[in-house]
Amino acid sequence: MSCSKPRGECPGASSYGHSLHPREETAMYDHRRLGRELELFGTDPLIGAGLPYWLPDGAAVRHSLEEYVRTVERRAGYQHVYSPVLGKRELYEISGHWSHYRGDMFPPMAPEAGDAGRDGSEQVVLRPSLCPHHAVIFRSRSRSHRELPLRMAELGGMYRSEPSGVLGGLTRVRAIQLNDAHVFCTPDQVAEEVGAALELIVRAYRALGIVPARYRLSLPGPGGKYVGSPDLWRRSTALLTDVLDGSGLAYEAAEGEAAFYGPKIDVQVADAAGRESTLSTVQVDFHQPERFDLRYVGADGAGHRPVMVHRSIVGSVERAVAHLIEQHGGAFPAWLAPTQMEVLPVSGDQVPAAEEFARRCGEPDLRVRVSGPERGSLGARIRAARLVPYQAVIGAKEAVDGKVALRLRDGRRLDPLPAGEVLERIRALVGAHSTDLWDGTA
Ligand SMILES: [Zn+2]
Question: What is the C-alpha to C-alpha distance for residues 77 and 294, in angstroms, rounded to an integer?
Answer without folding.
Answer: 21
